[in-house]
Amino acid sequence: MSLQILKQGAEGRVYLGDFKGKACLIKERFVKKYRHPELDTQITRQRMKAEAKASERCQAAGILAPRILHSDLNTHKLYMEYFDAAKTAKQFIQEVVLTQAEDAAKKSLLEFCTRIGNIIWKMHKNHIIHGDLTTSNILIKPEGGNYNIILIDFGLSHYSQATEDKGVDLYVLERALLSTHSEQPYLFEHILGTYRNESGPGVITKFEEVRARGRKRTMIG
Amino acid sequence: MVCALGIEGSANKIGIGIIRDGEVLANVRRTYITPPGEGFLPKETAKHHREAILGLVKSSLKEAQLEPSDLDVICYTKGPGMAPPLLVGAIVARTLSLLWEIPLLGVNHCIGHIEMGRLITGAQNPIVLYVSGGNTQVIAYSNKRYRIFGETIDIAVGNCLDRFARIIKLSNDPSPGYNIEQLAKSSNRYIKLPYVVKGMDVSFSGILSYIEDLAEPGKRQNKKKKTLDEEVTNYSQADLCYSLQETIFAMLVEITERAMAHCESNEVLIVGGVGCNERLQEMMRIMCEERGGKLFATDERYCIDNGLMIAHAGAEMFRSGTRMPFDESFITQRFRTDEVLVSWRDD
């Protein structure tokens, strides 16, 4: 069986394969030789399980995420639903900025941010913490004249009701947006605005606390 | 040609370095070492620095075989750091600047580490892992700034190690981290500890509390931990040191690797005091080899806080035209790496 490698990331590689005759995505995690074998096994298993669980929870909550078809803990492979013609939000944002006039670009990006804000709120309402919200982990799949938004890469996710964890989740997203899309500083603000409208102040207050903690981190050494 | 004298005193080291166009002329340092179980406090550290600094200035000039008139600029650490020790360096720098009529320049401590590492190793545009007692950051250069990709969301990795060394009463001589490293070599028993990576960020405070409980069972009355306590007693200090290192270094290597993948870079530079830990260097080297990348690291002379790095970063700033009016020669405890405009790099 020839496999087409789609992406080689820091933690593993993703390729196109098939599962019971249906096209699927196979995500294989590498064994990391630098860490203690016991720790490595523990982390790999924990992340594969987290990914499978969060995906299931997202389906139940009506959030689009790849369906897990099969998982093989021994070969570190997850077989999951493949989304044809999808691109990452990172590509999407860059394309919009390049191809549209400034005002139109901002308008479509703000619309996009409203949807992202809603999805994240929905996820947190169901106590799913993504753990690694970046624009590389959000997929855009064109559908008719519009598009669907799919969340992926739940390896660092967990289930938690704590506002602290939700606040940190938002903080991770803010940092990712600042470093990858520093030209569009309004993105995160808008996502947060939408989130606030839905959630009320609880998580937002915690988020601001986490952010203040992060900013202070210019200490001695 | 820029000849610079640098004064560093942001934490428990006081160091003077002299550099002329990338050529090291002098690098002298004294460390304030506290008894086992105790950390260094601002007031006492400043006292130590006050007593040592003038002798160090004299011996650095002697070692470099220079007269004050040979210097072009005097650099000092402007921050981040503890205020009282920082002030000692700043006051001496100001005094010398007026006395010898030489321009004065305040330098960001973190930038000093990065530039020193680049000079010594020759790394061009690496992902920088900056790990010390007060800082834990993964940094990448882009568009005239050193941008922070990932960092600790609570305590620094060195702080976690130092505080653990205090709990098990390890010596602070030459440094608590060094003694943990040596003790860890005598164990290979891995104890499961929390592993906390959040996106590109890491967290150490939970690990520290957890291992505190393992090291001193029963000290904290926690009913939930009771079952745990019973099996704990047979862990040796070496086992704990070994497991702590394995866990926290794996977290650091992981976020560094993610930054490499994100920035499509294949060079890593480790700087800061924890950077001279050989186990951390070894783990990072294995990761780099697996990716076809290259690791750059330095030894304790340049990794641990020193005056030379301040002199070098200051010389680079001075060369590219940065000047500082005398009334701006203050210090600041909070001074982020990404606040500095990197005027000396053109890439």
From TrEMBL, chain A:
Q: List residues of the Protein kinase domain.
A: 1-221
Q: Name one GO biological process term.
A: positive regulation of multicellular organism growth
One example of the protein's molecular function in GO is: protein serine/threonine kinase activity
Location(s) in or outside the cell:
Nucleus
Q: Can you name a GO cellular component term?
A: EKC/KEOPS complex
Protein keywords: ATP-binding, Hydrolase, Kinase, Nucleotide-binding, Nucleus, Phosphoprotein, Serine/threonine-protein kinase, Transferase, tRNA processing
> By its UniProt entry, which SUPFAM superfamilies does this protein fall under?
Protein kinase-like (PK-like)
**Which chemical reaction does it catalyze?**
L-seryl-[protein] + ATP = O-phospho-L-seryl-[protein] + ADP + H(+); L-threonyl-[protein] + ATP = O-phospho-L-threonyl-[protein] + ADP + H(+)
E.C. no = 2.7.11.1
List the transmembrane segments.
Answer: none
This protein's source sits in the domain of life called Eukaryota
* Function description: Component of the EKC/KEOPS complex that is required for the formation of a threonylcarbamoyl group on adenosine at position 37 (t(6)A37) in tRNAs that read codons beginning with adenine. The complex is probably involved in the transfer of the threonylcarbamoyl moiety of threonylcarbamoyl-AMP (TC-AMP) to the N6 group of A37. TP53RK has ATPase activity in the context of the EKC/KEOPS complex and likely plays a supporting role to the catalytic subunit OSGEP. Atypical protein kinase that phosphorylates 'Ser-15' of p53/TP53 protein and may therefore participate in its activation.
NCBIfam families hit by this protein: arch_bud32
Q: Which family does it belong to?
A: Belongs to the protein kinase superfamily. BUD32 family.
| Subunit text | Component of the EKC/KEOPS complex composed of at least GON7, TP53RK, TPRKB, OSGEP and LAGE3; the whole complex dimerizes.
Protein name, entry field: non-specific serine/threonine protein kinase
- Source organism per UniProt: Drosophila erecta
**UniProt lineage:** Eukaryota, Metazoa, Ecdysozoa, Arthropoda, Hexapoda
Question: What's the encoding gene here?
Answer: Dere\GG14144
TrEMBL record, chain B:
Its Gene Ontology molecular function terms? metal ion binding; tRNA N(6)-L-threonylcarbamoyladenine synthase activity
- Which reaction is catalysed here? L-threonylcarbamoyladenylate + adenosine(37) in tRNA = N(6)-L-threonylcarbamoyladenosine(37) in tRNA + AMP + H(+)
Q: Where in the cell is it found?
A: Cytoplasm; Nucleus
- Cofactor binding: number and manner: Binds 1 divalent metal cation per subunit.
Q: Quick one: which residues bind substrate?
A: 130-134, 162, 177, 181, 277
The UniProt entry, under Pfam families, shows: TsaD
Annotated GO CC locations:
cytoplasm; EKC/KEOPS complex; nucleus
Q: What is its main location?
A: cytoplasm
Give the enzyme class: transferase
Which PANTHER family would you find in this protein's record? Answer: TRNA N6-ADENOSINE THREONYLCARBAMOYLTRANSFERASE (PTHR11735)
Write out the similarity annotation.
Belongs to the KAE1 / TsaD family.
Query: What's this protein's name?
Result: N(6)-L-threonylcarbamoyladenine synthase
Species: Drosophila erecta
The major lineage groups are:
Eukaryota, Metazoa, Ecdysozoa, Arthropoda, Hexapoda
* Annotated gene: Dere\GG15998
